[in-house]
Amino acid sequence: MENAVVKTSNLSDIISKFAKVCKFRSVGVFPDHQKPSLNKPCDEEVEEVFEDNKAKETEATHISSKPSRKVPTLSWNDDDAIWKVFDTVSSLKLAYLEFQQAHLPYDPDKIIQADNLVVSHLETLRSFKRLYLKTKKQLHAKTELRDEVEVNEKILEKLKAKMKAKESEIHFLKEKLNSLVAENKKLEDKIVVSVSSFEFVFRAASKSIHDFSKPLITLMKATEDWNLEKAVESIVGNVTYAKNSDKKFAFESYIVQRMFHGMKLDNPCDVTELMSLDDPLDALAAFPDSAFARFCGQKYLLVVHPLMEASFFGNLDMRGLVLLGKHPRTVFYRIFAKMAKWVWVLGSFAASLDLKAKMFVVRRGTRFSGVYMESVVGDAKEEEDLRVEFITMPGFKVGDSVFKSHVYLSQTKR
Questions:
Q1: β-strand 401-403 against 373-375: which pairing, if any?
Q2: Which residues form a coiled coil (predicted)?
Q3: What's the CA angle centered on 50, arms 45 and 52, to 5 degrees?
């Protein structure tokens, strides 16, 4: 009996709160004149059991005298969760009614049984509340994750679009790179051919100067008016020659100084027709007003002094024809024209190269350098501290390629 009283006392607060919700009265507890109307609606908020849910109910005209003792399965599903809550509340109402009826007549066993049933249904409702809050929290977390996924998906789409654009750009750049590589290969091949061709012309021009110096020296030797020793000294003085035969290089230096004087590598000319003719006199006859024809005439007047021509041939007939813009068909003039042809082609070739070409001249007294110089009398060693006396061919720099200047070196240390 004490247990029943204690149990009832412990639940007094819960029952008093829940009584506000249920508003049920036992038929055996109240007198007949205070019987409640079974058709009167009952609307109250379930504030203590569910904090955010409101329910409006209309009492049924007939209430079962036996409350449901089946505890519903605890799972939160949007489709049927609310019906489970309603079922539990209905069962709780009936259990509370049974609890009231157990007091009149007073039956401790029924009171305990009804009390346990009420507590069981209240625990079920509390479990529903916890489950709802947990599910709500999970749904909130899922919503946040869904929002985050949507944001990440949008970012991913943007990144995919950027990646696609980058792939297109990469494809375009690869094609451009392949095109540039192919073009560079062609240019490299062209440069190799150009440099190789320039080297051929360079050596041909150097040889033609050497070839013209031979008849010039021969004619000077055959003429009593010329003293070779004095002529050599007048060209380059105070030179110690290793051999007497080396003095011929002084005449080559004389020719080079006049043939390359005033040459500029900024005026490319087409030399195809000139190179197609073996005899330069034929080219001069075919193109008497060409730049090469003017170059040839001007250089002849500069290289062959009137005193030279008069002493060689006894007259100035060739000079007279050249002054008139004509070109005599003599052996001497043919040799000169051949030299003039190769010098002209060398300058035109250098000016027409894609790679920038520069001509350089080594000054007298410069220390020998194997990078930019080549000795005309054989191999020279830099450690011997040899010095340049004069040049017999200027040097050229085409891109990274160097065509060495031909120099005569002093045989005595300075």
A1: unpaired
A2: 142-190
A3: 75
CA angle 23, 25, 29 (to 5 degrees): 155
Do 252 and 384 lie in a common domain? yes
Whether residue 48 has pLDDT greater than 50: no
Q: Categorise residue 23: left if φ over 0, alpha if ψ from -120 to 50, beta otherwise.
A: left
Residue listed under structure tokens 């399965």:
73
Tokens linked to 242: 């290793």
Q: Which amino acid is at 4?
A: A
CB contact at 8 A, 308 and 336? no
What mean pLDDT is predicted for residues 275-303?
Answer: 93
Together in a domain, 268 and 335: yes
> Do residues 299 and 284 lie in contact, with contact meaning Cβ atoms separated by under 8 Å?
no
Query: In 3-state terms, what secondary structure has residue 408?
Result: strand
Q: What percentage of the chain reaches a pLDDT higher than 90?
A: 46
Total domain count for the chain?
2
User: What is the C-alpha separation between 148 and 363, in angstroms, rounded?
Assistant: 80
CA-CA distance, 296 to 361, in Å (whole number)? Answer: 22
* Predicted pLDDT of residue 50: 36
pLDDT of amino acid 79? 61
State both tokens at 30.
């109240």
Asked whether residue 173 is domain-assigned, the answer is no
Q: State how far the Cα of 152 lies from the Cα of 159, in Å rounded to an integer.
A: 10
- Residue 400 near residue 389, CB atoms below 8 Å: no
**Cα–Cα dist 395/360, whole Å:** 5
